[in-house]
Amino acid sequence: MGIFFNRSFYFLIYHKLAVKDINVVLQKETSDGISSPSRDDDATLQNPGTHSSILDENSKSQLDIPERSAKSTGLCFSDGKSLIDYILVYRKSSSQSEKREIFERNIRAEGLRLEKEACLTNSDVIFLKLHAPWDVLCRYIKKYIAYLQPYHLTLHHLSLLVAGMNRLLTNNSYEAAFPLHEGSYHSKNSIRTHGAENHRHLLYECWAWWGVWYKYQPLDLIRRYFGEKIGLYFAWLGWYTGMLFPAALVGLLVFLYGVFTLEHCSVSKEICQATDTIMCPICDQYCPYLRLSDSCIYAKVTHLFDNGATVFFAVFMAVWATVFLEFWKRRRAVLAYDWDLIDWEEEEDEIRPQFEAKYSKKERMNPISGKPEPYQAFTEKYSRLLVSSSGIFFMILVVIAAVFGIVIYRVITVSTFAAFGWALIRNNSQVATTGTAVCINFCVIMLLNVLYEKVALFLTNLEQPRTESEWENSFTFKMFLFQFVNLNSSTFYIAFFLGRFTGRPGAYLRLINRWKLEECHPSGCLIDLCMQMGIIMVLKQTWNNFMELGYPLIQNWWTRQRLKRDHGHIPKASLPQWEKDYNLQSMNAYGLFDEYLKMILQFGFTTIFVAAFPLAPLLALINNIIEIRLDAYKFVTQWRRPLPSQAKDIGIWYGILEGIGILSVITNAFVIAVTSDFIPRLVYAYKYGPCAGQGRAGEGCMMGYVNASLSVFRVSDFEKRSQPRTNGSELFEEAVKYCRYRDYREPPDSDEPYAYTLQFWHVLAARLAFIIVFEHMVFAIKTLIAYLIPDLPKDLRDRMRREKYLIQEMMYEAELERLQKEKDERKKKNKAHHKEWP
């Protein structure tokens, strides 16, 4: 039964009947069952602007959609009365004609009407139009109501019939299957003066058109046209976008705080004025000695993101993620109530045909239905899961290998750029290395994403999930895990590993005992993380937007050009609606999966490393404002109309969002403690700076911090393969004898040369303490907020209680009325008895 309402035949009902108006159908029941209305009843359903004129009289006045003939728009059979509910497309040259004939004979037996139509632009293409007569709809609705009691075998046969149609699409017996759009989304007349031509036209004018980007989405209309599942997606996307406004505003204020305090930052001033401080080369041989003041601009840019407001913003974003999820639950509950889904539960999933075919010989009794069903043995099930898990682990190793390749590229290229002939590249070799590595990493990400889809599909089918929901959840988890690791692995490397395990001058740690590991920029590692996040975010969102709209536009344009070349100029208006829709792009095979996936990945990118890149919410907000209109334009104008289906939430994605929220607290704690200079500066201010012991910290307390955070190295202690080719005499007044590097180590002339200083251990202890305190504090705040915010708004809870009260009152009154009738009947019988026996 789940397939009946959630796949193709669900549309036959949904297209004509509003779910909450199902009682209108029941009113047609007679004492013998449901009466079959006349053919004129089908005519009342022909208005393309409303799904059922007898069910939605109020909606017509609200939407101002006039009555129009469906015949003129190509939405009905040749008789001009029977509305086309579904279109199947096949080619005469196909070798699967026998299977099609069997299928068509079966659906005729179910009472559906069929009509074939040749394609005007391709003689090999045949359109099969389907229509469900009113009496068939009423018959199956009655059986659907009765399904709440015993299980009906007839419905089971219909479910298998629909599953059979899906298999025919898979083996290319049919080329396409889709419901029709309700006509054109354009009109010569203004919608303000003449009203909307149909729901599609209205959706375009008030939702998909770029000029209405600032308006609220018409969720009820989206739900009516595309179904609850797509309606919930756009509701969630709109809610997410709206919640990004405060996050983007606070992130922008944090960035502006860095801009306005830049001139008062003593650390960046000290770096810019350190013309006498000579830094050790960042690579072997080719990299020269540099003045610390040469990194002045990078120190200032670092301050824009790494300043006193960073910790506050990290706490704010962790709380924001919790508030976003908690208030979405409330919003979802309101929508579920308004759309009559508050008590809707998905029926038990039908067994997947692939599972049934493979395990048909092994059966056991279903404890619920008491009927035999195929099952998968425990040992086989978990052996398949073990193989699948091994495949997942192997693909994660592939990602790590790709990251390792990028690391090797960075290590080798920094020396190449340092010896580059162009002075601009040579003087900014580390930034050029980071920039090119990020671009290459983006290309690797996009290539691996193509591979991951095929691997996830293979591994999910290898597991042989029993039901469709199990298959969908398994595939979703794999795809998210693959793409999340693929997208964020390089970012994790830069945030937590870059420059952490390089050793020190004279004793560098090396890859394969050859290449020196990459060091952070003299101004810190945060600038590399900011570049990584900014470039990846901009490139990925630009690519996604192109694939969202540019690719369908190009495909549809190419289809039109091919038709012109083969058949000359054919006015688009002369084509019937089914042919116009056939020339559009079909929705991807996984429905809304890709739409959710890219938004969930963006949510992760926005929250997980937001402490290093406060502008991430702003970039996400700008992208999402565009994304809503791109998706709307795509659904309304570039895609065939998808099958509507019911849903009361966003499914497994909510759990993934909660997991990302928890991970973001941990990663931001480590970013602040390990990647940024927040903790070393704090330790210096309170323990080693001019204000040590005074219990205060400010910009005046940071004087001398840069010198205290740099260690001294004697250049004669360099390894032979690390010895710079120049002794620095070309750049400085005399040969360099000592250089500085970022670390807390003893000078070379001390009793323990190059050993860690006490300040190093103080900083390390402070970092660990900060991580523990930050995580516990934020998790406590998140838990408290989740507890204080109820899942249902008070007014909704009151309305639900009111409805429950009224239902109980009606049942009580009905019971009293029944008892009163029984009492009256007993009195009449007693009187009749007394008359007969005086």
Automatic annotation (TrEMBL):
Its main location: membrane. Belongs to the anoctamin family. PROSITE patterns: SERPIN. Residues 32-58 are annotated as: Disordered. Residues 76-142, 163-219 form the Anoctamin dimerisation domain. GO terms for molecular function: intracellularly calcium-gated chloride channel activity; protein dimerization activity. It is a multi-pass membrane protein. It is found in: Cell membrane; Membrane. Keywords: Cell membrane, Coiled coil, Glycoprotein, Membrane, Transmembrane, Transmembrane helix. The chain crosses the membrane at residues 233-260, 309-328, 437-459, 479-499, 600-622, 650-674, 768-789. This is Anoctamin. Residues 44-58 have a biased composition (Polar residues). Residues 802-836 form a coiled coil. One of its GO terms (cellular component) is plasma membrane. Residues 222-803 form the Anoctamin transmembrane domain. Pfam families: Anoct_dimer, Anoctamin.
